[in-house]
Specification:
The chain has 18 helices and 45 strands. The protein is α+β, with helices and mostly antiparallel strands and 932 residues long.
């Protein structure tokens, strides 16, 4: 039996396991009146399971709207439940209260056939879906005037197809991430349609929906179309939650043609995303796959955010009883302090690597309060008990706790070993309050003398207090290590994937760490999750180390993430072993490969096909046989037919591609002082570091496997021929975008590919015409490859800012430095523009510096700052200071708003007037300036 997992099924693989969970979580037994109710439809082919969602308030004496939902390729099967795991079912499961319509969930049972046509009106599953809908309408009280059709991905294609086949049948049609045939436009012109598509969808390109919308409009129709920027193939997570769509579905109109764009929230993930829901079971581990260089400049940026990121209770705890001895008036006393607690906050921080295996962390502690609950004094014939004593450290300014640490890796976690610590309390920056109460007995033991003696004694024991603070350092370090997150590292590493559909789930783990006088270097291993956790090996397969030793990592002072491209080979090898590295040529995004699946085109290369009747079906798959590699161009020898092995049926089956997210880039060079006046940056500008270099992507063995079948599925598939290809294509990596939007890492195809081909008829096939024009097949494959690569980048992935909270760094450049690809980050550009008719005079400071300026900004010009931290701005207005905190990477304008006559500083699209950080007051002093 032919086994295939195509492009869209690959994307939905996580749902195969997730379906079990969703099915149990949202399902009800078949005899329940509401919720997800199981049903069985029976016809000549047997029993077919499906589900109906019944609203909680369903009543059979009222007519109800009905929705037919067609699922995507990953949910095909016969279990009757997978179709609930992705798409409308997952949304309804989370929002079922208040859903006001019945929803029918049939399941496509053909797991071997074409993807894009699986739900077509002339296919068995499409016809069965209509029959199931009809059966539901006979079982429930359905309003036939409110019959709504929707589907996602493969189901989006089905929604267009069923709508064109039965245009009068539907009150509304909502195709999501789908496409169809433009010639259907006249049939659909009177159908209320609202299509959704992710602008960054690399599985089904947005052009598929645009083409259909244009065709319907050209025929006189008025469909709605919403393209979601910042969203890819999983746009259903937004579409099916879109309140205007929900209202429109129940009351649509064909007279309100509308194109809309709304933006996905950055950083959000689909609720059924494999990353969040599917167990991560490692199948492959790649040691030394990446490195991260944390230069001292980057560590300085990180330090700005430590006060906001440390746990609020980091400096909250209890100290054991303290026993001391003292002498007063020639007499000895034993002193015991009990019930000692402390609290405080980290006001500032500094991090600096200064030598091999040494890292210095300084924490500025402020308002540290020690409370001694009870103090006991016992001497010869004399005793006293004192109530709470309060000691305050750092009430004027931070007191620095300095830690010398040796970083190391233990059990795949970054740890630190305390080498030394120092905590010196300045005499003018602490105070001791007298005890709240004193009880004394014995000659000369008055309350006043005891109180004064305790206070002066504590002042004399400052060294002991400093040691007690040092004693809590290990617990502070333990808490800091618990809150150390490496998610940003994993996200950046995952971006290095040069294929446009399937991206493996990866987790990075620290492997080794070293320091020098310019920063810290950390090497990372990478684990790749099994596509199906149940089939994962008992122990992960460990491949050869891929990257450079830490000793060879450049000792830069910035932030750099380097990835060894060698990781591509074991990751694609994993997909090949899983048997999914294959795709039908007509399911490849775009149409450039389609001729390799068409009878008329193939007959020019395989003349024997001319004896087959018109309508003969062609099955043509592209199969990756050997793993892909990334090679340095100078090291690559020309392709030779010697690379081919005989084509046989023993070759491994495979398939692999990735998801793509677009974005934009900002070029960053650190500048603390404002540069000369400049015009606002051009949003369309692109920048990248020079010398980015290039590499070559090598697919040493791929096969086009062709089979034929009589028209209308009248017989089994007959293997016809196999053609083997060796492919090499140059590529470059760069950062793209502008200062005003999120940057992207882009892998671009470049130049002409090298493609060699050989072929033969399938074993056992007896052609009447034995001619096989391999060169013609190569030309068709080359045309398809060029069309696919020229349609867009190999991969374009938005790289979020490395956001520490108060500070951030932004993608600034990408460089190929064999044998690794290096991505650099730098401070983002903060811009202040003057859109008013008069000069702007203002001052700025960092959170801990003195005021700089005043600076004068002419009308129509802007000042730009390269700083990783928030910038504090102030302007003198009639003897008072208008003061704001401008986040790193933000853009502000000095202008007059439409609702006022006085100019002010406004954030782009958001006024800054009276934010939480704002302060207006008299005088010329800098609020909060600590003089550092």
């Amino acid at each position: 039996m032919r086994r295939t997992l195509s492009l869209r099924r690959i994307i939905a693989l996580p749902a195969l396991v997730l379906a079990v969970f969703i099915g149990n979580a949202v399902g009800f037994a078949a005899d329940e009146r509401s919720g997800f109710v199981d049903h069985v439809y029976t016809d000549e082919q047997g029993d077919h399971k499906y589900v109906v969602f019944v609203p909680d308030n369903y009543a059979p004496d009222k007519k109800w709207p009905v929705v037919l939902f067609l699922h995507g390729a990953g949910e095909r099967g016969t279990d009757g439940r997978k179709q609930l795991s992705v798409g409308l079912g997952a949304v309804v499961a989370a929002q079922s209260p208040g859903v006001g319509y019945l929803i029918v969930f049939p399941q496509c049972e053909d797991t071997e056939g074409r993807i894009l046509t699986a739900w077509d009106a002339n296919r068995a599953d499409g016809q069965r879906a209509l029959s199931i809908l009809n059966h539901v309408e006979q079982t429930y009280n359905v309003d036939s005037n409110q019959r709504i059709l929707t589907g996602w991905s493969m189901g989006g294609y089905g929604a267009w197809s069923l709508a064109a086949a039965m245009p009068e049948h539907w009150s509304a049609v909502v195709p999501v991430s789908g496409g169809g045939q433009p010639q259907w436009g006249p049939k659909l012109k009177d159908v209320p349609i609202w299509a959704f598509h992710g602008a960054d969808d690399a599985v089904v390109r947005a052009d598929e929906s645009r083409t259909m919308i244009e065709a319907v409009r050209a025929a006189g129709g008025k469909p709605r179309y919403t393209e979601v920027t910042g969203s890819g193939h999983h746009v259903w997570t937004l579409a099916y939650r879109h309140e205007p769509l929900k209202r429109w579905m129940l009351n649509p109109s064909v007279g309100d043609s509308l194109d809309t764009i709304f933006r996905a929230k950055p950083g959000t993930r689909p609720p059924s995303s494999a990353d969040d829901q599917l167990p991560f079971v490692a199948a492959v581990e790649i040691p030394n796959a990446a490195h991260v260089r944390l230069g001292n400049e980057m560590l300085e940026a990180l330090a700005y955010s430590i006060p906001q990121r440390v746990p609020a209770d980091l400096l909250v705890g209890r100290i054991g009883d303290i026993n001391e001895s003292t002498t007063a008036s020639g007499r000895s006393f034993r002193v015991r302090f009990t019930d000692v607690t402390y609290s405080g906050r980290v006001a500032r921080a500094r991090i600096h690597a200064y030598r091999a295996d040494r890292l210095n962390i300084q924490l500025g502690l402020q308002d540290v309060r020690l409370r001694i609950g009870t103090t006991y004094l016992v001497g010869s014939g004399r005793s006293a008990v004192a109530g709470p004593i309060h000691i305050t450290i750092g009430h004027r300014r931070p007191v620095w706790l300095s830690l010398a640490l040796e970083p190391y890796v233990e059990n795949r976690r970054l740890r630190t070993k305390l080498i030394a610590s120092r905590f010196d309390i300045p005499n003018d920056n602490w105070r001791v309050a007298p005890p709240a109460g004193v009880s004394a007995s014995g000659l000369g033991m008055t309350r006043e003398r005891v109180s004064n003696g305790l206070v002066s004694g504590i002042y004399a024991k400052k060294g002991r207090i400093e040691r007690e603070v040092g004693a809590i350092v290990p617990s502070i370090l333990e808490r800091l290590e618990e809150n150390l997150e490496l998610n940003d590292v994993t996200d950046v590493i995952t971006a290095f994937w040069p294929l446009p559909v399937y991206r493996p789930r990866l987790r990075a783990w620290p492997q080794d760490v070293s320091t020098d006088d310019k920063g810290v270097s950390i090497s990372f291993g990478v684990s790749a999750a099994a596509l199906e956790p149940g089939s994962a090996p008992q122990t992960p397969v460990i491949v050869e180390p891929a990257g450079l030793p830490l000793s060879d990592v450049e000792q830069s002072t910035a932030l750099e993430v380097g990835l060894s491209p060698n990781v591509l080979e074991p990751l694609t090898d994993m997909l090949i072993d899983a048997g999914i590295a294959r795709i039908h040529v007509q399911d490849i995004p775009g149409t450039s490969f389609s001729p390799l699946g068409e009878l008329s085109s193939l007959a020019e290369a395989i003349p024997d096909l001319k004896r087959y009747a018109v309508g003969t079906e062609i099955w043509s798959e592209l199969v990756l046989v050997d793993p892909m590699q990334i090679l340095d161009r100078p090291e690559v020898a020309p392709l030779s037919t010697d690379t081919f092995e005989p084509i046989g049926q023993q070759t491994r089956q495979s398939g692999t591609f990735i998801r793509n997210v677009r974005g934009t880039f900002a070029q960053n060079d650190a500048n603390v002082e404002p540069p000369a006046e400049s015009l606002p940056a051009d949003d369309a500008s692109a920048a990248n570091a020079p010398g980015q270099g290039g590499f070559r992507i090598d697919a040493p063995r791929a096969i086009i496997s062709i089979a034929v079948r009589e028209p209308n599925g009248g017989s089994d598939w007959t293997p016809l021929a196999e053609f083997e290809f060796a492919i090499r294509q140059n590529a470059t990596a760069r950062a793209i975008g502008s200062e005003r939007a999120q940057p992207s890492l882009r892998l671009d195809w470049s130049g002409d590919p090298e493609i060699l081909a050989t072929g033969r008829f399938a074993p056992g096939y007896e052609p009447q015409d034995p001619t096989l024009r391999v060169e013609k097949i190569r030309e068709m494959f080359l045309a398809g490859w060029r069309g696919w690569t020229q349609a867009g980048p190999a991969s374009e992935v938005a790289i979020p800012d490395v956001d520490f909270g108060a500070s951030k760094l932004r993608l600034s450049g990408v460089e190929w430095r064999p044998p690794r690809l290096a991505v650099r980050f730098a401070p983002p550009e903060l811009e202040i523009a003057n859109s008013f008719s008069e000069p702007l005079v203002y001052e700025t400071k960092s959170p801990y510096s003195r005021w700089g300026g005043p600076y004068t900004l002419s009308p129509g010009k802007s000042h730009r700052y390269r700083v990783p931290y928030p910038l504090i701005y102030r302007r003198n207005v009639a003897g008072q200071y208008e003061m704001f905190t401008l986040p790193a990477g933000s853009r502000s304008e000095f202008r007059v708003p439409s609702s006022a006559t006085v100019p002010g500083l406004y954030r782009l699209r958001e006024p800054i007037s009276e934010p939480p950080q704002a302060h207006v007051g008299p005088g010329t002093g800098a609020a909060g300036d600590d003089g550092s």
